[in-house]
Amino acid sequence: MAPIEGSAPSIGSSMNEGQKATGGDITVYPTKSEVTPSSDILQSTQEAELATETDTQEDVFNRILKANTDTTQHLREGDIVMTKSRSAIDCSDRSCFWPQSSDGIVRVPYVFSPDYDEAQIRWISEAMAEFEILTCIDFVNRTTESDYLNIKSGKGCWSQYGKTGGGQIVSVMKQGCMWKGVIQHELNHALGFLHEQGRSDRDSYVKIMWEYINSGNKGNFKKSDNSNNLGLQYDYSSVMHYGTNAFSNTPGKATIIPIPDASIPVGQRYGLSNLDVAKINKLYNCNRCSTILDSPSGSLSSDNYASKYSGNATCFCLIRIPSKRVSLQFDAFSLKSSTDCKTEYVKIYDGVSQSSEVLLDKTCGTKSPPTVTASGRTILVEFVRGGTGAATGFKISYTSGRSKPRKNGRESDVNNIKSKVF
Ligand SMILES: [Zn+2]
User: Fold this and answer.
1) Which is higher by pLDDT, 412 or 23?
2) Which residues form the signal peptide (predicted)?
3) Which residue is catalytic, options 186, 196, 344, 382?
4) Which of 212, 236, 237, 329 has the lowest CB atom count within 10 Å?
């Protein structure tokens, strides 16, 4: 997989590199996530909060800092709880990573504290479901496992780093942390990821504006001398990156400025980036073909579209637009015909997982499928291709369904991914 048209020329090479980790022929892994379509969630008690998410465009880390203002928990870098037994962050023996089963899946057991309501549980489950479709991480209900995540509404949004043993708390406060990107940020800490701007090579990508950081907060900008960067690019759009004004002591003054191009957006509003996914897949040796498209409109093609392709693969593309409803149409379609489209097909879901409502069931042949529109901001495209064939594949274009103009749109974000091949 590789982008055919970069809306992010400055990080184009990083996307290529990132995609290597997730590309290639793969095995089909089952995902099991009891997630209802996002329409249900939008109608839930979270509606007001979700609407605000679209309007304010606030970055993930800023939300976390706000939620953690009154916390009594001792936190490092704003939201990481360090265990007493581990003074320095060192996971070189992999003991703080979650174990991989022989089927390639990394199962992370969890329990929810009983104080969440149904809508909150669905929302956290949807944040988990994106990991499950894009990576080999599978969050599973705990049965008897001794190491697990205890997800509860503590005071603030915080997590421990990596697997610490026993029932470790991931705090997702009901008021203030119920955002997909925030939940994914905290879960990613528990998987063993630190903040992106703490990487050993960060000074090549960002300038820290120390004069706008109070001495008590300077430790939050400490750089790791020996971080494991997994051979993958620095990611300004990582869900693990601080926002540009994090810990600023002067309103309007940035504490992190991208170099050399200060206009590159920093931080993430919506969820995991493609490089976040590539890093998880590399750290956990996942064999997964997946990609995210997060621009308000864009396109997706099958590998070698318009020429004969080869190889068996199952690939997933999560289209996640910033607002409104995703609508997609097929500009070209030719897949090998077979009974019940068993051999190869495209299937489309109204949401983020294979348990979401089906918008387009398995489709093959040469008749172009109808336009489909999701109930919300996400659509999942599943493409199974069955070896060498005469078919030429497909090309999809998608748009944000409603055309209401946006006040503070980020359509011009250079980091948003507009076009993909898979
Ligand atoms: Zn964090």
Assistant:
1) 412
2) none
3) 186
4) 329
